[in-house]
Design goal:
The chain is of the alpha+beta class and about 675 residues long. Among the domains are: about 210 residues; about 55 residues; about 150 residues, 2-Layer Sandwich (Heat Shock Protein 90). It contains 22 helices and 13 strands. Helix 3 packs antiparallel against helix 4 and helix 5 runs antiparallel to helix 6.
Length: about 675
């Protein structure tokens, strides 16, 4: 009875899983989940009856429910197939009436057997009626299959095989019971396992329903399951062979068994870790057990994850090659990209250093790829050269026996490059599905490659921009120094004998030399982030006024708040304030005035540079004053005022301009003061 309990218990689990799979699939037409669930309950109680030895009447009642559930399913199938008839079929009506009558008789017989237990009533309820149900079930299976159109029978043949087998076994079981006046215990015990064997057929039939989306096994799970089952079967066979060697080997039997088993396990491990074996198993499973070769969701997730792995831009070429090669189990790949000179050169490779060469963008092979957009199988092209339309690949490519697929990479309908993949380890056949997948994946990979190239070009452009900007500021500073020294030289003819002029001249030259030395140091050394420090504004303004002493119009300095400190880069702030003062001097005739005032406004330091020069109108101030590379001076660079405003705002300050044409201008510079606690 233990065997019978295990047999029916296995059947209960199998049909429960089938019912859950049907429910998850959203099956609305076949409704397999209902009879599968009833069968699972029947098998569960049959297992309990086998273990406990009681409850046979309940099992018989549940068996009747199981049979009626499957008969109802088949009758619904036949009814749906004949639903297009304009006149109701007498045969269909008879099947329905027969099913109703059989159910009524079975239920009545069960009730009579329970109320008046006797040999005759038991034979009728528990043997004869179930046998009639089995016969009726086989008739319905035949009707269901025969009424299905031939082109649609592929979808229901496994269902008919499963249910036909179930009813045929029941017919055999109860016919034997009628002949020998009792149910065979062995035949009854095997019934649960026999029903379990029918579940895979029902599941396959469910998967073949085009309107359903059943619970599916992924390619990866199928691969690992088959690998594990295959390994288990292999080990069982090897163990049996080893046991045979031990029996027939005599004194050497144990030794032969040990050596044989060790060799078998070593062979199994070598096969498990073989890339070729794994690749061929994947191809075999995809080809024979799935509608499509690829699990597209899993492949796309893996492909995208590999493309975006690591730091942005790091090894993007190698990652793209590895991702593309993985789609077809290729062990190596290489990438050619179009360069600025119009030639395609190898940019990267993955496990394929020996394949190298180049070809021009006007090469016939390149023009063919750009016009056709085809993924090429080089082996096929070698057998059928006419496929290339007289545009053979370069000799270094066609001469490599490992070269298999050529994948063009397009960006905005222009050929950006090509990928070449080596022969597949799994002997993947190149067909429309592989071609479409590679084209789609190539578009994604090309986007990453184009983005990497654009990022590289942007980095170079920013480096040049930084260099050009630094050079422009250096040239601007040199221009100011040259103007200052030229003015000094012009005044030397008239004032060179005056001691005061000589002192101003030496101070100006010393300041100019110091500034040029600092510029040379910055150009020579690697640029580093400038460090801010505490700057005393009085000392800074004294230095600015001193540097303008060579001009005939000397600016005046008025200090209203002497102990003001700001945080800034001293040299750069000196240059900014000096530029505004020098512009004021240049815009004012020598008979005019230029004044610099230092004051405090709340928590702000305020430097005012006022002149009585030509002045500016509002339009010029608003649209041109602080625009880079826009100058009203013939030799000006147009970046001095731009640098002033940018650096003042960088410090958290602001610059305000008030000007009236013909009367002069007033520049007010605001800087945040260092808090007293920070000074302390």
């Amino acid at each position: 009875m233990l065997v019978a309990g295990a047999s029916y218990g296995l059947g209960a689990v199998a049909f429960a899983v089938l019912a859950l799979a049907c429910q998850r699939s959203g099956n609305t037409e076949m409704r397999l989940q209902y009879p599968a669930a009833v069968t699972s309950v029947w098998a569960l109680f049959a297992a309990g009856q086998a273990w406990l030895g009681t409850g046979m009447e309940l099992v018989a009642l549940l068996e009747m429910g199981r049979d009626l559930a499957w008969l109802w399913l088949l009758w619904q199938g036949v009814k749906r197939l004949r639903g297009g008839d304009t006149v109701e079929s007498p045969g269909l009506t008879g099947l329905g009436q027969g099913l109703l009558l059989l159910g009524t008789v079975a239920l009545t017989a069960q009730g009579i057997a329970l109320l008046w237990p006797a040999r005759l009533t038991g034979l009728l309820a528990y043997v004869l009626i179930p046998n009639l149900m089995a016969v009726f079930g086989m008739v319905l299976v035949e009707q269901f299959y025969r009424n299905t159109r031939p082109q649609e029978r592929w979808g229901i043949k496994f269902l008919c095989l499963a249910l036909g087998g179930m009813f045929a076994y029941d017919f055999y079981l109860y016919s034997e019971a009628m002949l020998f006046a009792g149910v065979s215990p062995d035949t009854w015990a095997a019934r649960g396992a026999v029903n379990t064997l029918l579940v895979p057929l029902l599941w396959i039939s469910l998967r073949r329903r085009p309107e359903n989306q059943p619970l599916a096994i992924s390619h990866r799970m199928a691969f690992h399951s088959v690998a594990l089952v295959g390994a288990g079967i292999y080990l069982m066979l090897m163990a049996a062979a080893g046991y045979y060697l031990r029996i027939v080997g005599g004194d050497w039997g144990t030794v032969l068994q040990t050596v044989f088993l060790f060799g078998a396990i070593a062979l199994l491990l070598a096969t498990v870790f073989s890339g070729v074996a794994r690749a061929r198993l994947r191809v075999f499973l995809s080809k024979h057990f799935f509608h499509y070769r690829y699990d597209y969701r899993e492949e796309w997730l893996r492909f995208t994850a590999l493309l975006t792995a690591g730091d942005p831009g790091a090894r993007v070429h190698e990652r793209s090659l590895e991702a593309m090669a993985g789609l077809v189990e290729s062990p190596a790949a290489a990438l050619w990209m179009k360069q600025d000179d119009g030639h395609f050169r190898r940019t990267a490779h993955w496990n394929w250093s020996e394949l190298n060469g180049q070809f021009a963008s006007d090469h016939p092979f390149a023009r063919f790829l750009e016009s056709s957009h085809w993924v090429l199988d080089l082996h096929e092209c070698e057998d059928q050269p006419e496929l290339l339309g007289g545009a053979p690949p370069p000799a270094w490519l066609s001469g490599d026996p490992k070269a298999w697929l050529v994948i063009p990479l397009f960006w905005h309908d222009r050929l950006l490059g090509i990928m070449v993949l080596a022969d597949s380890l799994g002997m993947v056949a190149f067909d429309w599905e592989v071609s479409d997948l590679l084209k789609t994946a190539a578009g994604q990979a090309t986007a990453h490659l184009a983005q990497a190239r654009a990022a590289e070009a942007l980095t170079v452009a920013r480096q040049f921009e930084s260099f050009n900007r630094a050079a422009a500021f250096v040239v601007h500073d040199i221009k100011n120094l040259v103007a200052q020294l030229s003015l000094l030289l012009a005044n030397a003819q008239r004032h060179k004998h005056k001691p005061e002029f000589q002192e101003d001249m030496l101070a100006t030259i010393e300041s100019s030399v110091a500034r040029m030395n600092r510029m040379l140091i910055k150009l020579r050394d690697k640029p580093e982030a400038a460090s801010s420090s505490e700057v005393i504004l009085v000392e800074l303004l004294d230095e600015v006024i001193l540097s303008k002493s060579a001009f005939s119009l000397k600016p005046t300095l008025n200090i209203l708040a002497p102990e003001l400190r700001v945080r800034a880069e001293r040299e750069k702030l000196t240059r900014v304030v000096g530029h505004i003062v020098q512009n004021a001097i240049e815009a004012t005739p020598y008979t005019g005035k230029v004044g610099v005032t230092l004051n405090r406004s709340d928590n702000w330091a305020e430097i005012v540079v006022a002149d009585t020069g030509a002045g500016m109108d509002d339009t010029f101030i608003r649209e041109r004053l602080f625009r880079p590379f826009d100058s009203t001076k013939g030799t000006g660079m147009g970046i001095g005022a731009y640098e002033c405003k940018s650096y003042i705002q960088e410090l958290g300050g602001d610059i305000m301009v008030e000007s009236t044409p013909g009367l002069g201008s007033r520049f007010t510079l605001h800087f945040p003061l260092i808090p007293p606690t920070a000074i302390n």
